[in-house]
Design goal:
By secondary structure, this protein is mostly beta strands. It contains two helices and 49 strands. It has two domains: about 35 residues, no CATH class; about 375 residues.
Length: about 425
Amino acid sequence: MKKYFALLCVFLAVFSGCGSPLMWNILSPKLVYSGPFGSGTTTDPFRVYDVKTLKQVGSGIDGWDLDANYRQVENIDLSKEKQSWAPIGDRHTGSNDSCFTGSYDGKGDDGALKTITGLTINSTNAYQGLFGYIIDTAGDGSSGVVKNVTLKKITIKGGSNTGGVAGQNEGTVEYCTITGNSRISGAMNVGGIVGVNYNIIIGCAAIGCNIEGTDYNNRGGIAGCNYSSIDSCFATGNVNGSFNVGGIVGNNNGGSISNCYATGDVTGSRTATNAGGVAGSNSAGSLENCYATGNVSGVDVLGGIVGYYNGNDVRNCVALNASIVGNSASQYGRVAGSVVSGDLLDNYGKNPMQVKLGTITTGSAGDKNGENFTSWYSITWTGLHPDKETAATAVQSPGGSPWWYTGVGNPRLWFE
């Protein structure tokens, strides 16, 4: 009787799941994906549901090309894979035809974010990450889009231009998250989300993702080097490097960093360290509406927000770092370490803040130490006042303030 009852249960489980994308495999006691499988178009993307189909993305097999559209519909575990992950679109030909120019969405058909766990890379090659090289060949934001990707417990060791989501981005990376005690290292240009950014990164988070190694430059919690736009992102891991080391970006070269925060410690090892809580170096770029809380340490040119500053402006930034300590620092400040040119406007610093071997307790909103910070309600960021204190009042930037604040701790971003 028990045998027949068990067979009946299996029969019912199989046929009751016919209308669902998940069905019981009679020969194996687990659910298997049963469709839809997609055709690669924008309205009917290929469905990525296991290790095999993830590896098939961009392979050219059965039309799964680098310019096709994909949607991840199940959680995927790579932790048992013995081989190093081969990045999708690694630019091995040296031209755009080997870059990822399609779209990949990590939010399933059911509207839930799906995860990729245990991604491991051990390589000396450039352009390392889940994706190697992303590019918007259309030039209008419709191609080269990676969004809603969630990576957990990843370990990446690559060459130059290495990041969790992508080695290099010339497209759009949005709403992507790395979490779960992840580690990323490499040569020059290493970031938690992207190694080098030439276009748009928005709404991304690197949570507990440490950037490791002390021998190379341009290392940041979100991007190693930024030439374009990073908006509404945060990083909580520690960042280590030689010089141009920052909590968000190592080297902000003509780019903009806005509405971002970092809480991890930043450490540089080279003599002219250029280390900062948000950016290690800023050349002809801008920082606005950012804050940092982690310690900054190195040899010289150290700042709570930016280490080396040359051009454009740093505006409405708050340095809440407990300490900024250099072995032989002569250029340091609560907000900026070395100021060559550009404007420092409406910035604030923790009072007191340990700097080098002493403390700084005074400054002004227009100098490298900033005005003494007293309360978030005194800051000019839109939305940080008592009548807007919940996540529901924060909206995606642009179009309003991306921040919300309960009056306790520090402000948070709209998607947290």
